[in-house]
Amino acid sequence: MPTPTNLTIRQQSKILEIAFDDGAAFSIPFELMRVYSPSAEVKGHGPGQEVLQVGKRDVGIEGVEPVGNYAIKPLFTDGHQSGIYTWDYLYKLGKEEAALWQDYLQRLHSAGFEGDSGRAPGTVLPGAQSKPHACGHHH
């Protein structure tokens, strides 16, 4: 399992930068982390129980607590602090960012909250084309 070699919280641009020892590096927006929080209050207690998170486009992270040496617990400015993000999960968020945004925007749209995300539908995701990164190579 890849381990992070570097982790930086960028308060201004609202992204978490994380680099892994397999060479992968991601910039994960706080909003994405928040709406895909692994906590029970977001995930629900089974498939189909997910709670759609809306209005999180401006959410910040005021701090991060380490959880053992396998995860972090971000302290979000909206008071959400129960998500435990494992390295594995952060890796997945970074790797699948484009698909996850698509899915989230789709769900906002279905619920009638279109435009409620900082990602307007149809926007090209930052970094989608620009930087080369390790793509799907399993070591």
Description:
This protein is an alpha+beta fold. The protein has a single domain (4-110), classed as 2-Layer Sandwich (NE0471 N-terminal domain-like), CATH 3.30.2020.30. Helix content is 24%, strand content 24%. It has four helices and six strands; from the N terminus they run E-E-E-H-H-E-E-E-H-H. The protein has a three-stranded antiparallel β-sheet with strand order 1-2-3. It has a three-stranded antiparallel β-sheet with strand order 4-5-6. The radius of gyration is 15 Å and the shape is globular.
Termini separation (Å)? Answer: 10 Å
Query: What global shape is seen?
Result: globular
Counting H and I runs of at least 4 residues, what is the number of helices? 4
Lateral arrangement of strands in the main beta sheet: 1-2-3
Unreliable parts:
124-139
What is the arithmetic mean of pLDDT? 87
**Helical amount:** 10-25%
Structural class determined from secondary elements: alpha+beta
Could you state the order of secondary-structure elements as H and E? EEEHHEEEHH
**Oligomer status:** single chain
Supply the CATH architecture.
2-Layer Sandwich
Calculate Rg over CA atoms.
15 Å
Number of beta strands: 6
Q: What count of structural domains?
A: 1
